[in-house]
Amino acid sequence: MTTHPAAVRSDAGASRAVLSARGLTKRFGPFLAVNNVDIDIHHGRVHALIGPNGAGKSTVFNLLTKFYTPTAGRIVLDETDITAMDPARVARMGMVRSFQISATFGDMSLLDNVCIALQRANNLAVQFWRPLSSLDRLRPRAMELLDRVGLADMSQRRAADLSYGRKRALEIATTLALEPRVLLLDEPLAGMGHEDVENMASLISTVARDCALLMVEHNLKVVADIGHEITVLQRGEVLARGDYATVSTDPRVREAYMGSEDGGH
Ligand SMILES: Nc1ncnc2c1ncn2[C@@H]1O[C@H](COP(=O)(O)OP(=O)(O)OP(=O)(O)O)[C@@H](O)[C@H]1O
User: Fold this and answer.
1) Atom 5, ligand 1: which residue's CA is nearest?
2) Does the predicted interface ipTM exceed a cut of 0.90?
3) SS3 content of the chain, % helix, strand, coil (to 5)
């Protein structure tokens, strides 16, 4: 890892949960996929949601981001009950899902891609018609965002020419254009090679200093390196929570992972 874990573990704002869920429950017909899950996502911290295959991680992710309606339970964002709110309104409150703006434009430069994301973010934030800001005006901010994800020196390159890992970094830049209060990433390291994994993990750590961040992740080494808080799910229920040292030594967690394909990560 290029970022030393100790250097990124800031306790600033640790007591303030930006996003909380209580008693989160989801049934698909008779099947209980998520049962009575409590979770708190804090400003300035990386919260990792882990668990064996089929544990309910994606379902919790989709519940928190309002893509699914819970069967029971309550979700609160910045002290506002968002349980019944539609995803677009929740997005305007600052909850951003990976990679919400996403779909980068291959033929366009990295800089123009981020400018367009900023333009869309402006449109998302205001409810009334107003003239679109010119792309030129957005360039300084777009350069800042590219710098934040380590792509400033490639700003004029075509997005299509980037490596897979750098494309994901560009997507993070477009996501940051929304200035998330809460950023939820679903398997942000999936499909990446070793070097890209390290860069993305480092980037996630940096990004989390300015927001509350939840990631669903299978890569337990990265979870150990950058996760401040871990929630372990099994069969739709919270099996354990705490820092990595706590959950990884919990005999129930070890048993849950034994024999699962995640166990080897
Ligand atoms: N739309 C659906 N309809 C019916 N069952 C579903 C649906 N979505 C998920 N499930 C079931 O709910 C359970 C939890 O699935 P989920 O995808 O949330 O797990 P996961 O922890 O994300 O798994 P993985 O690590 O394999 O992605 C699984 O048994 C799955 O088959």
Assistant:
1) 28
2) yes
3) 40, 25, 35
